[in-house]
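Database export, one record per block. Field names are fixed; values are copied verbatim from the stored entry.
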Amino acid sequence: MHYLGLTWDHPRGYNALAAAAARLDVNRDRFTLAWQKQPLEGFEAHPIADLCARYDLVVLDHPHVGEAVASKCLQPLESLFSAVEIASLEADTIGPCLSSYKYEGQHWALPLDAATQVMAYRADLVGGEAPVTWDEVVALSERAPVALSVAGPHAALSFQSIATSFGEPPANRDPELFVSEATGLAVLDVMARLASRSPSSVWALNPIGILGHMAQSRDVALCPLIYGYVNYASPTQSGAAPISFSNAPRKVAGGRPGSTLGGTGIGISTRCKPSPELLNHLRWLLSEGAQSVFIPSHDGQPSRRSSWHNAAVNERWNRFYEHTAETLEKAYVRPRFNGAIAFQTRCSQLIRDGLAERRSHRAVLGDIQDAYGASFRAAAA
């Protein structure tokens, strides 16, 4: 039997999956698996139902879950794995990386890859310890180039992370209200102060682009919120400087590091007829051995908690995992209702335009609240 999977075209998203599939022997394993890839932004542009109609396995981000459930294009894990297996996986997975795929009482993807927004900086340019609080980040921006990650969905994601660090994870207290006025205005004030000094060279770049730029240039010393890519912690390309990673900023020292969960999971489409051998292959990808040895050795970023605290893994990757694990454990899970992705796109555009045009924070926040309310009501209708 032959299966077809879709993932994203970065070494972190593709190499380990492709290498694992290449180890399969059709005579021994009774199936083959081929992974295709597309740009990360492609998952935002194409409806999940369209991808699931063409692939057996789809690597997805948790905000797509509501849309997937509404279109009935994924199989719940509960129909393929035992309750004991799922409970064990929940206990072994770091942070909310499995629970983020639980929606309407069932899980819809296996947590392959763990990531969240963390702080990235060039130690040689910062000139000391990385800042801990948002006040320290703003102060640093007055003497060193500090960049915001705001391209694509990242303006909205950074907004949510800062709000979380300020004690109000969006849409949590009242699902019909994105964020209170006091918190929203405070978040936009921080973003505006940083945006006014953020290097224009990275304004339009996604996290991969920003990290690549930081490794090769000296005009960005720190990015306070950016999705962590372990590959940049110990670069192999000539001339690239290592990037240090630490926990996301907090409102006050000792407070919650504000961060919005990313990472990816493997969804099994309704077109797929998974054999026992395929399910065992997926089990192996999430096993201790694969997560602590095979996946990190093939540029992947594991989702198993023990792998994030594995001494050998941390030694190889410049302590990336242990320096950011707290942020991942406490990461904020975004809204996942059907339409959440469209709202995220709109919210980002509103924030970017507001920062660029220096619109009043109150006007920008009002537009965000209106866009969120319209999306939430449409999903509930």
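Remark 1: The domain at 117-260+337-380 is CATH 3.40.190.10 (D-Maltodextrin-Binding Protein; domain 2).
Remark 2: DSSP finds 18 helices and ten strands in the chain.
End of record.
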